[in-house]
Design goal:
Strand content: 5-15%
Number of strands: 23
Oligomer: single chain
Radius of gyration: 26 Å
Structural class: alpha/beta
Helix content: 40-55%
Strand order of the largest sheet: 11-10-9-14-15-16-17
């Protein structure tokens, strides 16, 4: 007779102490512990507790499918009817579809993680076939386990989390200012945004902004919301200013988790106006009325069981799991009301500023997409200037701008693959990389002194991204652990602008101490290009810094320890070496540094890759974008060649 099996599922390291009594109890024999996240895995390993990981149950291709499923599920849910009316029809403001405008945010911050965990937990339970399951009633993972146990009639021991424990975790996240982690906590976001809303209300204008009837020059409005947009805008703005043919102003959203964009534009001497400064009391009153409408709509959702039943994934009813997310968007965070406020305010901005052209740097996120859609509704030409790398994903097929200034053939092919109109796409190259061609950036040796690194030792650079800290821990440990075997090399960790230096440095220093590694420098403010210029090899996950390193003819190694597909085709193209296991990093670095054949092959492939991604590296991308702008001002509906 086989022993009864108990399955323990953990998603947070802070919950491990809660399940220890179960590990020691004689009532729970034949235990299988599954750690869903790396921070849990690390803690369990430290405490000597055996565990399994999702990679033992799920393949890379399965995760890729789940990611696309998340996007298509949202499209399907938008068609679900509430008492006979499709949700996307109900969520309309000034004839604009709010569901479409907010869909990417729903996907990127919530639904893709919920569906991934649903698929993973369902597969784990199916493979293990336990007699009993132990889990913690926290977040969407606890709800997923509960739903599956109810369907499969598996006894569940669900451990509750106290209010104090929940608040302690919130404050830990808040202290770290981890952007992704904050966005994954709807309750925490609700309080943060209410505080910010109170602050903004103090500056709301009392009167409608008068429309300026006098406008001797064509007016271009650039819509931005992150400091990363500034390097793209700067060379375009400087050419337009020099030609003195257009009046250019940047309208910048004052985001609560990324509110340094305005300072960045001002530092680059680009005219910039805070979006919120246009909000009037009249707009505020209109949006307050719409909030009441959203409350009524959510009440209808809560009693329409047919609508709720339309939310199913891998046989699991999803409404109990996603209800908090809908509550967040409809009522607690009032995110849909925010989009309505965007619409009202942008309408006022475009009319008062007498806009002739709207330029957006991101038309996927709600703010940028709304800016373009409002412009389209007012028959104002709209231009999307690519500022990063377009992902090969279904959401890339929804670019509503009049024209798209694409960085290269790769972007064009991705957009065409997902159904974009080919007449809208104009190849221009990437404006922010022009300075790398014409050497406007003054490379000098000061970077050695600034970082306190030696000139005679090879420099390995790791560029990071603002992921949740538990996701980054695995990368940090992999790279720093590898440096233990490379004492004659020095590592420079260049943090992403959205990361908090003090928080990341504390974690990295702790890992360095654990591995007894001293040859590591951490920086956030040092010039990225100067760091790349002195490097011998660049390590990253899927950041655009890999492409920038390739433009500077530097070898790149991408690291993907997630078990999921690469987000960007750096390694697939042969322009970089891909590392998918911690043990592969050291030989990869050594091959790049010492194998001439490897270096030669990488050099050949990255030249082709750079062209596909950024078109001609001739220093004229900004000029091509300006040419496109002038053509659009003259005749926005024409087809242009590049």
């Amino acid at each position: 007779m086989s022993k009864k099996k108990t399955l323990v599922i953990l998603s947070s390291s802070s919950h491990i102490n809660r399940i220890k009594p179960y590990l020691d109890s004689s009532n729970y024999q034949n235990l299988v512990v599954v750690a869903l996240t790396f921070d849990v895995q690390l803690k369990l390993k430290t405490e000597g507790i055996d565990f399994r990981t999702p990679k033992e149950y799920i393949t890379e291709n399965e995760y890729k499918k789940v990611d696309e499923d998340a996007w298509y599920s949202l499209i399907q849910w938008g068609d679900s009817e509430i008492f006979g009316r499709p949700l996307k029809k109900i969520l309309t403001y000034n004839e604009l579809n709010l569901w479409n405008l907010v869909q990417y945010e729903l996907y990127d911050f919530f639904i893709k993680y919920i569906l991934k965990d649903t698929y993973t937990i369902e597969r784990i339970i199916a493979c293990e076939d336990p007699n009993t399951i132990v889990a913690v009633d926290y977040g969407h993972q606890g709800k997923i386990v509960s739903s599956i146990c109810e369907i499969k009639k598996i006894p569940l021991d669900l451990i509750s989390v106290s209010f104090i424990d929940e608040m302690r975790e919130y404050f830990t996240i808040l202290a770290s200012m981890d952007r992704n982690k904050i966005h994954s906590m709807p309750k925490l976001l609700k309080y943060l945004f209410r505080i910010r809303e109170w602050q903004r209300r103090r500056s709301i204008k009392s009167d409608i902004i008068p429309i300026n009837e006098i406008n001797s020059q064509e007016k271009i409005l650039v819509i931005a919301h992150t400091k990363n947009h500034a390097p793209v805008v700067k060379p375009i703005y400087e050419i337009l200013k020099k030609n003195n043919t257009c009046d250019v102003n940047v309208i910048c959203l004052d985001s609560i988790v990324n509110n340094d964009a305005i300072k960045e534009f001002e530092a680059k001497k680009i005219p910039c106006t805070v979006f919120e400064s246009y909000i009037t009391k009249d707009i505020d009153v209109k949006v307050e009325k719409f909030k009441n409408y959203l409350v009524k709509t959510f009440s209808d959702i809560e009693i329409d069981t047919d609508f709720q039943k339309s939310f199913v994934y891998v046989g699991i009813p999803m409404w109990p799991i996603v209800k908090d997310v809908f509550l967040y968007f409809f009522i607690s965070r009032q995110r849909l009301a925010d989009i309505a406020k965007y619409i009202e305010t942008l309408n006022l901005i475009y009319k008062s500023e007498k806009a002739n052209l709207v330029v957006a740097l991101n038309v996927v996120v709600p703010f940028g997409k709304t800016a373009v859609c409002v412009g389209n509704a007012l028959n104002i030409p709209t231009l999307y200037v690519e500022h990063g790398l377009v992902s090969e994903h279904p959401f890339s097929g929804d670019m509503p701008a009049t024209k798209i200034a694409a960085s290269g053939d790769y972007t064009k092919n991705v957009l065409l693959k997902y159904g974009e109109d080919p007449t809208k796409i104009i190849l221009t190259g990437q404006p922010k990389y022009d300075l790398l061609y014409d050497k406007k950036l003054n490379f000098n040796d000061n970077i050695y002194r600034q970082l306190s690194i030696k000139r005679d030792l090879d420099v390995i650079v790791l560029t990071t991204q603002p992921h949740p800290i538990e996701n980054m821990m695995k990368l940090y440990r992999c790279v720093i652990g590898t440096m233990k075997n490379m004492t004659d090399k020095q590592l420079v960790i260049k943090l992403h602008p959205a990361e908090v230096l003090s928080t990341r440095k504390k974690i990295i220093d702790k890992i360095c101490t654990e591995f007894n590694v001293e040859n590591v420098k951490i920086t956030k403010e040092a010039n990225l290009y100067e760091i790349l210029n002195i490097s011998n090899v660049i390590l990253t996950e899927f950041s655009t810094t890999a492409l920038e390193a390739m433009i500077l003819d530097k070898p790149v190694i991408t690291i993907n320890l997630t078990g999921e597909s690469d987000r960007m085709p750096y390694a697939k193209s042969g322009a970089a070496i891909g590392v998918y296991d911690e043990q592969e990093l050291l030989p990869a670095i050594e091959s790049v540094l010492y194998d001439k054949n490897v270096r030669k092959e990488l050099s050949k492939n990255r030249e082709k890759f750079v062209y596909e991604q950024t078109y001609k590296q001739d220093g004229n991308a900004s000029m091509r974008v300006v040419k496109l702008i002038n053509q659009m001002l003259e005749n926005p509906n024409s087809n242009y060649s590049h």
